[in-house]
Amino acid sequence: MPSLWVWVRLASHRRSVAFNRICWLCWETVSRCTLQALAALPFKIPVAHIHGGEITQGAIDDALRHSITKLSHIHFVSTKEYASRVIQLGEDSSRVVVSGALSLDNISTMSLLTLEEIQAHHNIRLKKPLLLVTYHPVTLEYEQIEWQIGELLASLDECGLPILFTMPNADTSGRIIIQMIEQFVAEHPSAQMVDNLGSQSYISTMALANRKNFRTKEFG
User: Fold this and answer.
1) What's 166's DSSP letter?
2) 3-state DSSP call for residue 49?
């Protein structure tokens, strides 16, 4: 992404950080970024980390995210609170930039899809009112996942509304969630599931679900 690379270079220059080699930008899933940062370490490749200092309650992400912070050389954080946490972890304050959340910029400029485009692209039929449901594993409570998703599905069963499920992250016990959703969909004609809507379709479906007679729910 040239624009992001240019942005990182400019920010680095302003902070008087001399990057003599390629700068690796870590902003994907925390597990994948941990591997990237570790691969860069023995070769002294500078790492720029996005969204450091954040807290995800109930998830193992925090341990991995803070590890990436310690392996990184410049930090682009979304809020002042997270900047303070990165500095508390021992990072040089001159290398911490409060840049905001890049995804919000992406969403604000995103062209949303119409109802017809979403349905055609994913071979689904969306009915009003709609519940858009995504449940990700609580990774620090993976032993309870069957009970947790069972409670959610029982509540959805009682509401009786049309439901569109999207599948969870590839986290601990995620397969249990998938299996239980598949069984629920098989037993409820008004429920549908897709593996992954993708960013544009997901945000577009959320926008539709938030309109009158639509609903959206995200759990986990």
Assistant:
1) E
2) strand
Residue 24 lies in domain: 2-107
* 211's tokens: 């309109």
Do 164 and 94 lie in a common domain? Answer: no
**Residue 69 burial by Cβ neighbours in a 10 Å radius (0-12, 13-18, 19+):** buried
Q: Which of 129, 124, 139 lies closest to 217 in space, CA to CA?
A: 129
Domain shared by 52 and 135, yes or no:
no
User: What is the domain-level CATH number for residue 55?
Assistant: 3.40.50.2000
Q: Which of 78, 107, 136 is the last residue of a domain?
A: 107
User: Does residue 39 share a domain with residue 94?
Assistant: yes
**SS3 annotation, 54-120:** CCCCCCCHHHHHHHHHHHCCEEEECCHHHHHHHHHCCCCHHHEEECCCHHHHHHHHCCCCCHHHHHH
In tens digits, the chain (220 residues) has pLDDT values of 434 443 444 444 443 333 334 456 665 556 667 888 888 888 888 899 999 999 988 888 889 899 999 999 999 999 999 999 999 999 999 999 999 998 888 899 999 999 999 999 999 999 878 899 999 999 899 999 999 999 999 999 998 889 999 999 888 899 999 999 999 999 999 999 999 999 999 999 999 887 755 555 554 4
